[in-house]
Amino acid sequence: MTGPAEEVRCMLMRGGTSKGAYFLAGDLPAEPAARDDLLLRIMGSPDPRQIDGLGGAHPLTSKVAVVTPSTDPAADVDYLFLQVGVDEPEVSDRQNCGNLLAGVGPFAVERGLVAPGGEETAVRIHMVNTGDLATATFPTPGGRVDYTGDAEISGVPGAAAAVVIEFPPGSGPLLPTGHIRDTVAGIEVTCVDNGMPTVLVPAESLKVTGYEGPKELEEDAELTARVQELRLAAGELMGLGDVSTTTVPKVSLLAPPRHGGAVTTRTFIPVRCHTSIGVLGAASVAAGLRIEGSVGAPLAAPPADGDRLRVEHPTGFTDIESSLTTGPDGLPRARRTAVVRTARKIFDGTVFPRPAVPPLPAPSASEPPSGGPR
Ligand code: NQM
What we know:
Layout: E1 8-15, E2 18-24, H1 32-43, E3 63-69, E4 77-84, E5 91-92, H2 101-110, E6 120-127, E7 132-139, E8 162-167, E9 182-184, E10 187-193, E11 197-202, H3 214-218, H4 221-237, E12 250-255, E13 263-268, H5 279-289, E14 308-313, E15 316-326, E16 332-351
Parallel strand pairs: 2-3, 4-6, 11-12, 13-14
Antiparallel strand pairs: 1-2, 1-16, 3-4, 4-5, 6-7, 7-8, 8-16, 9-10, 10-11, 12-13, 14-15, 15-16
Bound molecules: (1E)-4-oxobut-1-ene-1,2,4-tricarboxylic acid.
């Protein structure tokens, strides 16, 4: 006997080059274990095809944003990002996502959490995963979110309204190990965190060019083993502890630019290779290239002036505006980071999760052993 189907209010949105399910916190269970169980059933995980849920069978399309009015006076809304495993029954809050972030402001207006502010609305967002702030500005003519526009971002067909995201200086150090270079698993790397813990590695140190496609890199067993070895060791050094089951740090392989940008990237997130690059991942690469003495500096071609830097990736490029300053400890710190993204509402409605697996009934003394004849 089953009860009535569960139903949950949900909006599916593309945020930048990712896609995810957006929820009001009040529409989900407050208790994290119950919430995560529900989200796995909504997304269709664990299953490599996520055939019985909303997930798109890739980490970039198996994401969740949970939004609620903020209690932080510096913010309008709180945004909790959850990465839902595709083939593992895991839901992680250990990383942030700058792509789904692009949909948070529009979602907050759509759900009435923030009143539209005229032709444009600026929503101040507290990113719960890292404690950092962001402000997203997007068009709201006539008091409605307008998703149409002429902004193009690599990895997304067509054009849409720009969502301009500004990040004030982050709360943590830019160099989590306290060093510009570290030798990890025998390789010189630079560990950067400008919103996303990222290990920068010259591609040639891992015996690849850095221009291969994501599929070819993912299928290179020797490379992926090295990337994982390096990530585990770097995770410890970066103060992240045992990262064997977490999605951070990311590993970004760097090579000289080929299309007029500042650098070429191939980024492991951390097992699959990104088809482009995450927003905060790109912000971390951009900051890393600006640090004199980093492993990225000699192979990069950063612009002579201005804050804008173009990070090339497998499907195009991401432009990041960033500038650094020096902290009291003499180490570099982020001063400002900004990026242009787009987002789009795909559907708004009710999602029906796969039913929960009922707990096995406890055997009673009067019943024969399970599986036995009755
Ligand atoms: O770095 C993928 C993405 C991301 C995260 C990942 C992101 C970011 O492309 O800000 O957006 O690195 O797992 O959405």
